[in-house]
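Researcher: I'd like a candidate sequence for this fold, 321 residues long. If you have to choose between options at a position, lean toward the conservative one.
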């Protein structure tokens, strides 16, 4: 089987991949925009592992499987895949993202970094016994989950472990569970936005989710509410979120998925058209929430298993088309 890892992101998953497959495979890595021998390898790939496909890439002539080593496939133009070729994605990032979200939320209640910084200067600001130094607790808050897929389910378990109340808005019905206190369809999104103290968006970007968290939804949030986006940037309307934060109509935001990303003409852009970086009520991170050793390992295993299944004629995992 000719297996090609396409692009810098996919390159991360190549080391050790052959060990998961066993002998008999030809594995190569090509650049984001392959030329020469790389372009020929791209064209002849039977399995292509990557996250981007557009008109600038060589035509795929022998493809049997396009495997995305990620959950999102919005940068893959499915019209360019040969007829009948399956497209599969990979998860395995939900544990890492859940840890990221809980760390971000806990940091708002447990000021360890500030306490450390102060005590190194002899400042005992948070000393127990000082009535002005008491802090809030995460367990007193309600966690709102917009989307209840792999990430949402992991977050519900962790939120419940901290004693949080958990409410959900999801496209498909959510079965009753000990982890969830209330569920609503997405067309009743406002119920979650009004109820929750911390709202976590983990939806994929699709035509019906772009801008879903808009002015009405954000306006429904509590004045102390915090919005966390670990789904896709454009699911949350950029202007509406920026203005709500700028005008301090909500308590804050933690943003890991963005509106502008590095590209060929600018490798270090600011991540949005609006100046979020000027606001002091936003935590900004560079789409890092799910990027861990464990995520890479689990996605490698998914891709390798799908190649095994392809050769065996068995149903593929996470098939999108």
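Model: Candidate sequence:
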């Amino acid at each position: 089987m000719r297996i090609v890892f396409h692009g810098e992101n996919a390159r991360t998953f190549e080391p050790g991949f052959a060990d998961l497959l066993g002998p008999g495979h030809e594995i190569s890595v090509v650049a984001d925009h392959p030329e020469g021998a790389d372009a020929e390898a791209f064209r002849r790939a039977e399995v292509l592992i990557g996250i981007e496909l557009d008109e600038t890439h060589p035509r795929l002539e022998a493809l049997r499987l396009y495997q995305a080593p990620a959950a999102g496939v919005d940068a893959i133009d499915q019209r360019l895949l040969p007829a009948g070729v399956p497209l599969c994605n990979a998860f395995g990032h939900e544990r890492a993202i859940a840890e990221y979200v809980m760390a971000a939320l806990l940091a708002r209640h447990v000021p360890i970094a500030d306490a450390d910084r102060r005590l190194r200067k002899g400042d005992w600001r948070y000393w127990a016994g000082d009535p002005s130094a008491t802090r809030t607790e995460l367990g007193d808050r309600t966690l709102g989950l917009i989307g209840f897929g792999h990430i949402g389910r992991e977050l519900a378990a962790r939120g419940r472990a901290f004693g949080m109340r958990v409410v959900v808005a999801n496209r498909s019905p959510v079965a009753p569970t000990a982890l969830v206190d209330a569920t609503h369809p997405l067309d009743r999104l406002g119920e979650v936005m009004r109820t929750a103290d911390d709202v976590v968006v983990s939806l994929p970007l699709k035509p019906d989710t772009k801008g879903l968290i808009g002015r009405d939804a954000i306006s429904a949030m509590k004045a102390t509410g915090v919005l966390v986006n670990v789904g896709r940037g454009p699911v949350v309307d950029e202007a509406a979120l920026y203005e709500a934060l700028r005008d301090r109509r909500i308590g804050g935001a933690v943003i890991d998925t963005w509106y502008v990303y590095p590209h060929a003409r600018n490798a270090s852009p600011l991540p949005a058209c609006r100046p979020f970086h000027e606001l002091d009520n936003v935590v900004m991170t560079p789409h890092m929430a799910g990027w861990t050793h464990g995520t890479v390992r689990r996605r490698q295993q998914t891709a390798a298993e799908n190649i095994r299944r392809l050769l065996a004629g068995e149903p593929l995992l996470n098939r999108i088309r």
